[in-house]
Design a protein that fits this description.
alpha/beta
Length: 243
C-alpha cells in the first residue's frame, strides 16, 4: 500500500498525512493521502485537513490483488492525488501558495507486499512467478514505483518517506499456509523482499542525487519487524508465531 504522511501548519491549521502498506495493500494521506481500509473523499476546504485514498489489496502492478475484487492501484491512487492537487490550487487561489503548501507535506509510501503475496507467490492466479526471477521482478516493481514518484514530484511533492517491505514471509498467514512446521518463516518470500528493499534504498539514493530540492528517506520496516520477532520481550510480546 502507499501511505503519505505530512504535518504542516497552513491557514492556522495543522495537517498530517500518512500512508503505509500492509498485507491488504492500500494508500492514504492525511494531508493529501492517508492510510485506511476504506475512504470517503473530503470536500471543499476539508481537503486541507487531509485526504484518504485507501484501497485494500492494491499493489504497484496493475493486476496485483485482482482475485480479491475491486481496488485502486498505486497508479490510480497517484492519479487521485493529482486531482486533489488541482483542488488545492483552486482553494488557495494561488499556484505558488499551493506549491508551498504541498512542499511541506511528508509523503509516506509503503507498497510492494501485495505484489508478492497477492501476485508473485500466488501461481494459481498469476504467472509472474514463472515469468520473472526475483531480481527481475523487483526491477519491474522499482521501475513502476519510480514513475509514480516522478509524477508526484512534478505535482509538488518534495518530502518522501518510503517504507520498505516488512518480513512478510513471517506473517501469520504465511506461517499457517507455507511454513514447514507452522513456526518457521518462509525464506523464499523474505529473500525476494530483501531484493526489492535493497533496490528501494538505491532508488532513494538516486532521487536524492537527482532532485536536490526534494528529500527522500526510507524506513526500514523489515529490520523493525525482524527485531520484534527476534526480541519480542522488548516490545511486550511473548508469542510471535501464533494469532
Amino acid at each position: 500500500m502507499l501511505v503519505l504522511t505530512r504535518t504542516i501548519e497552513s491557514r492556522a491549521a495543522k495537517v498530517k498525512i500518512s500512508a503505509q502498506e500492509t498485507t491488504p495493500g492500500h494508500a492514504a494521506s492525511s494531508c493529501l493521502l492517508a492510510s485506511s481500509m476504506t475512504s470517503k473523499p473530503r470536500r471543499g476546504e476539508d481537503i486541507l485537513r487531509g485526504e484518504n485514498y485507501a484501497s485494500a489489496a492494491a499493489g504497484i502492478r496493475e493486476e496485483t490483488g485482482r482475485q480479491l475484487g475491486g481496488r485502486i492501484t498505486f497508479a490510480g491512487q497517484v492519479a487521485n492525488h493529482v486531482n486533489t492537487v488541482s483542488q488545492v490550487v483552486n482553494i488557495l487561489r494561488d499556484e505558488n501558495e499551493a506549491a508551498n503548501y504541498l512542499s511541506k507535506c511528508i509523503y509516506s509510501i509503503g507498497l510492494g507486499s501485495n505484489d508478492y503475496l497477492n501476485n508473485y507467490f500466488m501461481p494459481l492466479y498469476y504467472s509472474t512467478g514463472s515469468q520473472y526471477s526475483p531480481d527481475s521482478f523487483a526491477n519491474d516493481l522499482i521501475n513502476r514505483y519510480t514513475e509514480q514518484l516522478r509524477i508526484m514530484y512534478r505535482n509538488g511533492a518534495r518530502k518522501f518517506a518510503l517504507i520498505v517491505i516488512g518480513a512478510i514471509g513471517c506473517s501469520l498467514n504465511e506461517l499457517a499456509q507455507n511454513s514447514r512446521d507452522g513456526r518457521t518463516c518462509d525464506e523464499r518470500i523474505n529473500s525476494a523482499n530483501r531484493i526489492f528493499n535493497s533496490k528501494l534504498v538505491s532508488l532513494v539514493d538516486r532521487f536524492n542525487q537527482n532532485t536536490p530540492d526534494a528529500k527522500f528517506t526510507y524506513i526500514n520496516a523489515y529490520g523493525i519487524f525482524q527485531d520484534m520477532v527476534t526480541n519480542p520481550s522488548r516490545y511486550g510480546f511473548r508469542v510471535t508465531n501464533a494469532g
